[in-house]
Amino acid sequence: MPHRMTNLHLVSDSTGDTLNSMARAVLARFEEPMVVQHRWSLVRSRLQLDRVLEGIQAEPGPVLFTLVDRSLRLALEELCARLGVRCLSVLDPVLDLMQQAIGERAQAKRGAQHVMDADYFRRIDAMHYVLAHDDGMSTAGVHDADVLLVGVSRSSKTPTCFYLANRGIKAANIPLVPGAVLPIELDAIGCPIIGLTIDADSLIDIRRHRLRLIGAGGVRQDTNDYVDPDSVKAEILAARRLCGARGWPVIDVTRRSIEETAATVVQLMEAWHQRRRDAKQAKPLAS
Known about the structure:
It is a single chain. The chain contains nine helices and eight strands. By secondary structure, it is α/β, with parallel strands linked by helices. The protein folds into two domains: about 5-100, 3-Layer(aba) Sandwich (Rossmann fold); about 120-285, Rossmann fold, CATH 3.40.50. A four-stranded parallel sheet has the order 2-1-3-4, sandwiched between helices. A four-stranded parallel sheet has the order 6-5-7-8, with helices on both faces. The radius of gyration is 25 Å and the shape is globular.
């Protein structure tokens, strides 16, 4: 059955991040969907909504929305009903469920998740920390890290750290360079250390692309250890052996997205902290 072009309107009175994430998750379940996404964010007045309504009339298609203002919601729903277009307030089912569970009505606050509270400033602080401790640039504050990622060059350490920072996690990363001595600070670090590894062929492709981007494409790649297959395989093996010798868990990022890698890092962090809690509880019993 051939795909047909579909317009999808995402209408939000805040940043639209919730709708964008939901649409991305849903559309990923279809094979090459022909969907044109129309993003309408910060819709907070009738004038702004009128522009949205004109857009829906011009290019009809399903509407997903997160609008707190009841008058705006009604105007949007009325237009969709007249056009015969399906529309859905995506948070309503979850709000209804949680209101019943908690026994309290939710407050009508737009963009409530974006408030500048302690959690917000913790994420900003974590982002600054990642910038200061990326790629082993500074080991002075590594003891303040919530997690430390190690791995060979171009094994996605930096993007994973930034993704973790957006969740308020202070993540430092240190490259495992052949022949280089690890910082002595790692011997007494009080956070989980996790290794990232990657398939040699994938790593070579990434590194070759990196060389082209920085204008080093003229380097003879058959003699450059950075992309030489045998050298790269030896580098990856040495890094894995080091992690194994130190008892550091290793995540293979070859076929993982940054989001999946970060989620696995968080799981390993939780397991690390649980083992420490268990060990503390066991000490009084042993004595």
